[in-house]
Amino acid sequence: MKSAIERPLPDKLLNKEGTYLFIMGWDFHGVGGVTQVVSSLYHNVQKLSRLRSRLLVISWPHRRPLDELDSRNRELTRMRLRGIFYRGPILLDLMRFLILAPLELWEFHKFVRRHNVQVVNYHFIHAVAFTLAAARCLGLYKGGLIFSIHGLDLRTLVELRGIRRALIRWALNRADAVVACSEDLAKEAVHKLGLRSEIVQTIHNGVGIQRLKGEAASSTREIVSSRDGPIFLNLGTFEFKKGHDVLIRAFVEVLRVHPTACLFILGRAGPESEATAQLVKTLQLEGSVFLLADVLHKDALAALQAADIFVLSSRNEAFSVALLEAGSFRKPVVATSVCGVEELIENNVSGLIAPPESPTALADAMLSIAADPARASMFGRKLFEVIEADFTEEQCASRYLRLVAAQESDSGLSR
Known about the structure:
Layout: H1 11-14, E1 19-24, H2 33-48, E2 52-58, E3 66-69, E4 75-79, H3 90-114, E5 117-123, H4 128-137, E6 144-149, H5 152-158, H6 162-173, E7 177-180, H7 183-193, E8 200-202, H8 209-217, E9 231-235, H9 244-257, E10 262-267, H10 273-282, E11 289-293, H11 297-306, E12 309-312, H12 321-328, E13 333-336, E14 352-354, H13 359-371, H14 373-390, H15 393-409
Helix pairs in contact: 2-15, 4-6, 8-11, 9-13, 12-14
């Protein structure tokens, strides 16, 4: 018997009208993985159903909701939503919330009524989860409530203690579903945060293969050009968990075999930007390793398309969108064995997997895949077939919609 999120979409859901609201704590024009996931869900939810997608950006300056169209003609609202806790004394946070939150909750109530919001889907969870759960418990919102966790957000919540931890656990357990983007992350949510296992669902991220090709084709910036040696590429924010220091040290060993090889690392500027640049300088790799921050997504895709081998060097990862993008371009992949990777890649079949935190092991895998172009090509082809079969953005969106339908049938999303 198929799980609830694998059943066909019922006619009742396909004909359901109203708004599917996606909430995030930052603007939607960035290049990060979570932003890409939500953007694709926005388009595919309304393509696959009659629900109308809307984005909500939690924006402190906007005491009252501001509706607008963003640069991609998406319906977007900026709105203040206060969380239950910050980093001050917990009693002060609670008093501030009880005094100031009611007006904001009333604005939220008017907003969801005006737009006929049927489903609220909050991505990258933090303190506002409590606010949303409280709004529904108070009857200010009566539709479905889905929380989507993406990795770092869960690990931040796990570090909470005392009342803060109890409040966030209460909020998440009041949702109709908590969606994790990998099976390992789902298990972590249940075991480390104390969530009810029956509400935690795994829905892997998806990717739009043709859309990515179109974006890459629209780029006018040449970052990666033809070279004598193999071209390795990594996409990821300059932060500790991405393991760029491990990758750069591994690349030193690669250069001993392939002196003309080059490595490109593209990602959002982050806390490790300066340290990564300093490491390249210290190891005297300026002519072989190229760091580019805040590159447009279309330009990053064009660079990925031009590269020979994609390398994921992460210390920690929930479910890498960059791996999906690499596979969409049939690129051979070397990845570390972090959370979610082995749910996509079969070692020595659709890529090579190395242990994290080991420059030597990572270098061995990079050299192995560079030494056999035919084998590398087979890896890229196999990974593409896996993605095409089960990891498209349409499949991701339809699984969210099936989840909505399944919860409605259990009276979860129709309160």
